[in-house]
Design a protein that fits this description.
249 residues; six-stranded antiparallel sheet; alpha+beta; two-stranded antiparallel ribbon
Length: 249
């Protein structure tokens, strides 16, 4: 029973993270090492409960109404999000930028909050998590602050992910250590047509999340420094808001 429950939660998580793009039963069965009959039974039970819906017989299944309702029914890190939302919104409006707050779980970059106030960047985040730790500014910051014992697994799990934002002539670990020391990632990304930046958010000195953002590539030379400085101040403001100072006397 425990094994079935484990596979059930794994299948539900996989479909929700992949939504709105559907997954087929055969793909899920292969991914989790179970036969298609067992996978079909689990899928049917999740569908009957409203967690999944069948997009089509050919395409497979996506997150259903009960799974989508989690966003309104579950409060996740309310203190962090309460502090971050107004600050991120303010930075996005002030710099006409796309600003987001992200954290890492395993090899995935989870988007906790996003606000886009750039009239030129058509950024729409339709997914909850992305396997792009080494291909985004916020991802690099999250990887840089990953515990040393987790880093080998993160590098191995990157699969075919490109390390295009890092210098191929230098070691990845060395560059991540430099990012961690500088507490800053900021540069132009011509491949995606953006100027990007990311800064860490701390709670009582411990790394908590990453605040990042982007502006159009052709604007980065003129206002990239001001944008990065403003985003850095915003990350510090959030850090201060979520930290607790205990004093006596």
């Amino acid at each position: 029973m425990i094994k079935v429950l484990d596979k059930t939660f794994a299948i539900l998580e996989a479909v929700v993270l992949n939504s709105p793009h559907p997954l087929r039963i055969s793909v899920l069965a292969e991914r989790f090492g179970i036969n298609t009959g067992t996978c079909a039974r689990i899928i049917r039970e999740l569908s009957d409960a409203g967690y999944l819906i069948q997009v089509s017989r050919q395409d497979g299944y996506a997150a259903g109404p009960r799974a989508l309702a989690f966003a309104n029914a579950v409060s996740y890190k309310p203190a962090l999000l309460e502090a971050a939302r107004p600050v991120a919104d303010g930075a996005a409006r002030r710099f006409e930028a796309s600003v987001l707050l992200a954290e890492r779980q395993g090899g995935l970059r989870y988007i906790l909050y996003h606000r886009n106030e750039s009239p030129r960047l058509a950024i729409r985040l339709s997914e909850l998590a992305f396997r792009d730790l080494f291909d985004t500014a916020t991802g690099l910051m999250l990887a840089a602050f990953a515990p040393e014992e987790e880093l080998p697994a993160l590098l191995d799990s990157s699969g075919g992910e490109r390390f295009r934002l890092l210098d191929p002539a230098r070691g990845i670990r060395e560059q991540l250590a430099e990012i961690r020391e500088a507490k800053s990632v900021a540069f132009a990304d011509p491949a995606r047509g953006q100027g990007i930046a990311a800064f860490p958010v701390f709670r009582n000195g411990a790394f908590l999340a990453t605040l990042g953002g982007s502006i159009p590539f052709d604007e980065y030379a003129e206002r990239g420094a001001a944008f990065a400085e403003g985003l850095s101040r915003a990350a510090s403001e959030i850090s201060k808001a979520v930290s607790i100072i205990n004093t006596a006397g």
